[in-house]
């Protein structure tokens, strides 16, 4: 097996991802460029044999106050991709990839690795006897391969009537944003982050959104709900291969009670159908909850739920334990957090 490590500057990264049997924008080099800062490094680990490929993207971070590092995934749904189904690869090929990856991580003083896995991708054969895969919450997706009316039958009854009211009685319409309006959307998005008391990380600036909407790796659409000439809400949808992803969204405070996002999602579904995509993935709740208001909102559009999982790998147990002890981590309180030394 040929094993290689690519950076976001390597054109091969995108070529490998685009030839995968299924992938999402989270796997692309453009998205990883957006997700790295001056201190982090995005890498794609690639194993190839007889024209078959497995690839795993990871971000390498410095562990504060040490000469060591750890690996994590970009924000969103990552994990490995491959040129064919993982269950079609021989166990020997997968074991060899795992061994090569482990050798690299040890050589580079990378103490642990963590990745959020993509709920729409079956990757479990890759993780056989390789770290720990944990089930977290569920995510929701609309099956765009069904006839339009079948999709709509899956809507919660109240959703159907509210969407009709938004259009016919309340005067909302949905369209793509005009380039000069991006600043307005960013203000609405930040207002939403204020309202939900989001962490600083989620306050993406206008330049970030420009790159998200215009890059060579994947397409994106920013749909907005408009009432009386004013943008009430908006959402970025990424379009990659078979998957449409509901990514970043915001609603102006004054329009919260009307929930115009319901109309945006309904129109996005129609767009996904038109473009021949297979899924509109809505994601899950806040912080891994299947009970919060965000999850309930999303589950009003589909009964299709998928298991969201994460992968944890301790590369060097002795150094891992040393870091946990040095950082005085309360292991009981931090149970479930990985890596523990960052709790």
Written overview of the protein:
This protein is an alpha+beta fold and 343 residues long. The protein is 30% helix and 29% strand. It is built from 10 helices and 13 strands. Strands 1, 2, 3, 4, 5, 6, 7, 8, 9, 10, 11, 12 and 13 form a 13-stranded mixed sheet that branches. Strand 10 (230-240) and strand 11 form a beta hairpin. The protein is globular, with a radius of gyration of 21 Å. The relative contact order is 0.15. Belongs to the FemABX family. It comes from Sinomicrobium weinanense. One of its GO terms (biological process) is cell wall organization. Residues 172-326 form the N-acetyltransferase domain. Keywords: Acyltransferase, Cell shape, Cell wall biogenesis/degradation, Peptidoglycan synthesis, Transferase.
Key terms:
343 residues, alpha+beta, 13-stranded mixed beta sheet, 10 helices, aminoacyltransferase activity, acyltransferase activity, transferring groups other than amino-acyl groups, acyltransferase, cell wall biogenesis/degradation
Kindly report how far apart the N and C termini lie: 37 Å
Q: Which segments are poorly predicted (pLDDT under 50) over 5 or more consecutive residues?
A: none
Q: Note the main sheet.
A: 13 strands, mixed
Assign the structural class, choosing from mainly alpha, mainly beta, alpha/beta, alpha+beta, or little secondary structure.
alpha+beta
Portion of residues within helices: 25-40%
* Overall pLDDT score: 96
The shape, in one word, is globular
InterPro entries: Acyl_CoA_acyltransferase (IPR016181), FEMABX (IPR003447), GNAT_dom (IPR000182), PG_Glycine_Bridge_Synth (IPR050644)
Domain N-acetyltransferase: 172-326
Organism: Sinomicrobium weinanense
Protein name: Peptidoglycan bridge formation glycyltransferase FemA/FemB family protein
